[in-house]
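Box 3.1. Reading complex inputs
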Amino acid sequence: MKEYTPAHVGTVTRYVVIESFDVTPADLAIRAYEISKGVMIKETCFGLTIMGEEKEVDRIIAELRKVDPAHIFVKDRGFPPGDARRCRSGLGGARPGFHGMEFEMTIIPYVSHGIEELEKRDTMTVPTPDTTPGKSILSVYKLKKIIDSQEP
Amino acid sequence: MAKVFIYPSTSLILADLVARYGHTPLSSAIAIREHIQTAGFESSPLQITPEDPKKGLKWAAVEVPSGVRGRMSLYGPMIAESEAAIIIEDADLAFGCMGCARTNELIIFLLRQKDIPKLELRYPSSEEEGVTFVVAIKKFLEELGKPGSAK
């Protein structure tokens, strides 16, 4: 076994994902470069990857969120940007983990709408979500109905 | 500020909403980062060493596949550390091989067993559901700051 010497110890890496009609990852990258100090910023197709000291990364993210608060989403990443174990430039195909993010990108517009509506609505009047067990399971009777409707 | 375990633990939406409303999300990236920033023997890609399935024995028996035990060495300490949890039921992205699928089942089981405030909901599929989804999470996270929050 080879000895392992970790790189970038003590840093954090965060994804800044933008799902907006008005702001592009390039706009966000320019804003991030303007206000950053001693962090690594990588522009991606979905937003940015920012790596550096936690305090500085959080400061930049807090500023970036102001650009489009309801459409910017942030999450942690374990690996630093461009890490050979994860970066698709060396591996080919999509980065492991991208498909999960791609799936959530289809839901983010609803969540963004929810965040925007929070400002306008009284939260006390909003009903609680329906979490009835088995709601998402397709009933056999419904399945039979679908099959019957497709048969001539 | 409470430590909130999120499931699916790679969820961008949950990680963002928890951080947005002032709490700390416990996601898989935190555990992975800890592993890859710790010196030792090289065990690419995630630095899961033979020691990790042994640590996983705390949460899963020795007959359980080592994949589950290795994964539990990442998630187990975070579940122990968590002060609240948000679980998305039937999340389409939380699927996988035997290792991932069984670990996911075990994570949900352990979270349900633990005496902490929990919120279980589904991903929204319309704008109106998006509103109820965000409001439910916001109310839940606001309650966490108050003494004697509901479990």
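In summary: The CA atoms of residues 31 and 134 of chain B lie 26 Å apart.
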